[in-house]
Specification:
The structure holds two protein chains of two kinds. Chain A is built from one helix and nine strands. Chain A is α+β, with helices and mostly antiparallel strands. Chain A has a single domain, classed as Jelly Rolls. The radius of gyration of chain A is 19 Å and the shape is globular. Helices cover 59% and strands 7% of the residues of chain B. In chain B, strand 3 and strand 4 form a beta hairpin. In chain B, helix 3 crosses helix 7 and helix 7 crosses helix 11. Chain B starts with 6 loop residues before the first helix and ends with a helix. The chains are: A alpha+beta, B mainly alpha. The interface between A and B is large, with 78 and 81 residues. Strand 7 of chain A pairs parallel with strand 4 of chain B, so a sheet runs across the interface.
Chain lengths: 141, 305
């Protein structure tokens, strides 16, 4: 009986540790991402967070308004990994990908006209392990 | 007297203890993870045919309500507090549904007031927001430090906006982690409706073409919002009623004519700026402007009354 209880509570303790470890990872990711988000940009009030698994890309659609400058920041908590983000218009024309620029984690976008875009996010590393990616978007007032 | 614990009892106890952790982890990883294939990760190649998932619970990125306020101010349109929700209405909001909607509404109002540098009104709206965040249990995102920081920066509109947007971001994250995404969705819905309400009221009163066009450009953000809200449809009758109203509004947006032409972007690598040169155009008739404005008012009234 004592052995059963020991195993049960040992498992429980391990799971609690894993859970708090995930939370710590997300806090760390949030911190990393915020470093690229300078105060001159106003965030849109959301964090775009997703867990990636092999051969997955994340996408979402968003509208950027004309005569505005936006910053997109993409980061991951995976070691020795880069986040690749690509911006398409709704006709699937590729407007930009940071893959052509050493996967640099943040870029500014100046829109002359309002354009609805599809943003795709992917992680590039040699030995894939599941992890989180986060995107922040803000505009420059 | 010693307590007797048998093996079955231990397993039951363990299951009870593990359930919340299991749910916490599932809320962090997102339900769509279950659909993940087990194929080997491929090197990056930009295409649109790969297996795609959507960012969990966040399909409604822009426009930020602050952008509308900035646009209105930059066009030289005078401040109009008659278009805002009054802080006195706070007492009407006794359910979390209404509280969350109006937290979004008051947040947009505060950014509008702040951009026009109306400090006394900012304080009143800030107090209203504080009460709502307490009612909704959002103190981890809107804590004492936040309100003290806001009070210190009440005269600095850019600092206040940055702090406010950061706290709404933290609230979004906190709500997702605590499996209360419906509250975050209602905050978004309230914030969006208030920003288009400000747009439509001022577009009609000034006939400013830029405001009218900006209103017409809300079709895709509205579609995104509906996508976020739809999973909540069967939560209760009031959720269903609200979502039906948004869907009805989306039908009217379908009557607006859009045109888009792709032009090659230019990259300024040194300054890390991409110039997106594609052009879009919106044609919205007086008829559609009236219909859309009326429907926006109906939705807003449903939220604030």
């Amino acid at each position: 009986m004592r052995r059963t209880l020991t195993i049960a509570f040992g498992t429980l303790a391990l799971l609690i540790m894993l859970s708090s470890s995930t939370s710590a990872q997300l806090n760390q990711l949030q911190h990393i991402c915020s470093l690229y988000f300078s105060p001159e940009y106003i965030a849109d009030g959301q964090e775009y967070l997703a867990q990636l698994k092999p051969d997955q890309k994340v996408e979402f659609r968003t509208t950027f308004f004309g005569d505005n400058t936006y910053r997109i920041v993409a980061c991951t908590n995976l070691k020795r990994s880069d986040v690749i983000f690509s911006v398409f218009d709704t006709e699937k024309n590729l407007l930009f990908t940071n893959a052509n620029y050493n996967n640099s984690p943040y870029w500014d976008f100046r829109f002359t006209s309002t354009v609805t875009c599809i943003i795709q996010v992917d992680v590039q590393n040699q030995k894939f392990t599941p992890g989180y990616v986060m995107l922040l978007i803000g505009y420059k007032p | 007297m010693p307590i007797k614990i048998n093996t079955r009892g231990t397993i039951f106890l363990l299951l009870i203890l593990l359930l919340p952790i299991a749910f916490t982890n599932s809320s962090c990883s997102g339900q769509q993870d279950k659909k993940a294939p087990s194929a080997v990760h491929q090197p990056y190649k930009p295409d649109t045919s790969s297996f795609l998932i959507k960012f969990e619970s966040s399909l409604f990125p822009l426009p930020s309500p602050y952008q509308v306020a900035h646009l209105v101010k930059n066009l030289g349109i005078p401040f109009n507090d008659n278009i805002l929700n009054k802080p006195e209405n706070l007492k009407l909001y006794t359910t979390s549904f209404k509280q969350a909607l109006n937290l979004g509404i008051y947040g947009t109002d505060l950014s509008y007031i702040n951009i026009y540098e109306r400090t006394p009104q900012s304080i009143s709206y800030l107090n209203t927001i504080k009460k709502l965040t307490q009612e909704l249990g959002l103190t981890p995102a809107f804590n004492q430090n936040f309100f003290e920081g806001i009070e210190r920066n009440i005269n600095s509109k850019d600092s206040l906006l940055a702090m406010l947007s950061r706290s709404y971001r933290e609230a979004d994250s906190y709500l997702r982690e605590s499996d209360r995404t419906e509250i975050g969705a209602m905050m978004l819905a309230g914030g969006w409706i208030e920003s288009v309400h400000i747009l439509s009221r001022l577009a009609k009163s000034t006939s400013n073409r830029e405001l009218i066009n900006r209103l017409g450009e809300q079709k895709h953000p509205l579609d995104n919002l509906i996508e976020v809200l739809t999973p909540l449809y069967y939560k209760s009758a009031e959720y269903a009623q609200l979502i039906d109203m948004f869907i009805d509004l989306a039908y009217e947006f379908d009557g607006i004519i859009y045109s888009y032409s792709y032009k090659e972007p230019k990259v300024d690598e040194d300054n890390k700026i991409i110039y997106i040169n594609s052009q879009s155009r919106v044609i919205i008739s007086e008829y559609h402007l009236d219909i859309i404005s009326n429907k926006i008012e109906n939705i807003r009234n449903f939220m604030i009354e």
